Amino acid sequence: MEVNSLASIIREQTNRALWEVKNVIDCVPDELWDRSYCDMPCWKHIYHMLFSLNMWFINPRDPSFIAPEIHEKDLNNLDVVSSKQLLKEDITTLFKELEIKIKKYLDQLSDDELLENPPCCEYNRFTLILAQFRHLHTHLGMIMGFIIDDTGLWPRVLGLETPFPSEPYNKYF
């Protein structure tokens, strides 16, 4: 990691965060997928987290933003019960698409652009990224709590220095 470039540091930390998100999703046992937490199924908490990351990480005011194909009104809203149910495969596919989108964006992002506002947006890029890290890890922590409470297993996360595990690896500590 290039330590003299903020964009490089953001790329590295985002790669670590995305690895953790994927690992936590993989750690949700089938029997917990539809279990209700705070009146919403576990999968909806995950979808809310990913939908927000998709919309807010780059530019929440982008007039050309297209919601995921699986989306329907309020599917991301944790205050609205949805009739639609998402499968783990739906979430996994969405995550893979989002990971590609975010990595492509960050690969082109420079330090100078961090303090610039994307088109039609009142926030600069650094604020959007930092806000999504906060939002992402709030929800990731909740989902990890669901898993830990119900299974007694602690999903693996990466520290600042922990190397990325190679396959196969234990998903839990």
The backbone outline, from C-alpha atoms, is globular
Indicate the structural class: mainly alpha
The percentage helix is 40-55%
Cα gyration radius (Å):
16 Å
What is the makeup of the main sheet? 2 strands, antiparallel
Poorly predicted regions: none
Task: Give the percentage of residues in beta strands.
Answer: under 5%
Distance between the termini: 25 Å
Question: What is the number of beta strands?
Answer: 2
Number of discrete helical segments: 6
Provide the spatial order of strands within the biggest beta sheet: 1-2
Detailed description of the structure:
The protein is mainly alpha-helical and 173 residues long. 54% of the residues lie in helices and 2% in strands. It contains six helices and two strands, in the order ααββαααα. A two-stranded antiparallel ribbon has the order 1-2.
In short:
This protein has 173 residues and is mostly helical.
How are the elements arranged and paired?
Layout lengths: L5 H22 L2 H4 L2 E2 L2 E2 H15 L31 H21 L2 H4 L10 H27 L22
Antiparallel strand pairs: 1-2
Name the descriptors.
mainly alpha, 6 helices, 2 strands, two-stranded antiparallel ribbon, 173 residues, 54% helix
